[in-house]
Amino acid sequence: MSIAGWLPLLLIRRIGLSPAAALGDLALYWLALMAGRLISAAILPHVRHSRLLFGSVAAAILACIILYFTNNGFGAASGAVLLGAGYASVFPLVSEAIGHRFPYYHPGFFNGIFSFALVGGLLAPATLGYAASLWGVGVVLGIPFTGTCLVMVLILLIWLESKVTGK
User: Fold this and answer.
1) Above pLDDT 90, what percent of the chain?
2) Helices marked H in the chain — which ranges?
3) Which has the closest alpha carbon to 158: 41, 89, 150, 58?
4) Burial class (CB in 10 A: 0-12, 13-18, 19+), 91
5) How does DSSP assign 105-132, residue by residue?
């Protein structure tokens, strides 16, 4: 959510894109996100979920790095598309993994967890606004990058735990 709210402003202020081009890149981000969700739903039965999740998180991290260091429209567009595609399959895969990992919990419990996460997602754009006013607009990639890195660490810890316990 914070990427969608801040991407055009980031591209306008940091790279110097026109507002129309920045909104075009935002449209590419949403297109890649929606197409990625459809494609990931279609390939889920045929691909190992752990590899798809790891690849998606790695693509999102690479996209944040590209968006941070780019200085032209092509880098901005490719970063936006890669970021949308990278984030596309993370939520469905994490939801499925949680459901398989904790089958004894009531589904309403997970709704509460996701509601709590949604509140954080709604507060992130405002927090980014305050951070951008203090440290510059480039900081708006910091929170999504940090969150994506934390997901990567969580994936690695889950893999390690499954290797140790043999599950």
Assistant:
1) 27
2) 2-10, 19-43, 49-69, 73-88, 90-101, 107-135, 142-165
3) 150
4) middle
5) S-HHHHHHHHHHHHHHHHHHHHHHHHHH
Distance CA 40, CA 88 (A): 8
* Contact predicate 93/49, CB 8 Å: yes
Q: Which is it for the CA torsion 45, 47, 51, 57, positive or negative?
A: negative
- The DSSP output letter for 18 is -
Phi, psi angles (nearest 5°) of residue 153: -65, -40
With H, G, I as helix, E, B as strand and everything else as coil, classify residue 48.
Answer: coil
Q: How far is CA 18 from the centre of its chain?
A: 25
pTM: 0.78
Distances (CA, A) of 138 to 23, 26, 80, 155: 18, 17, 15, 27
* pLDDT above 70 coverage of the chain, percent: 89
As a whole number, mean pLDDT of residues 58-63 equals 91
Predicted local confidence at residue 105, as pLDDT:
66
Q: What is the CATH number of the domain that holds 38?
A: 1.20.1250.20
Structure tokens at 92: 């469905």
Contact 25, 7 (CB under 8 A): yes
Range of the domain at 111: 2-165
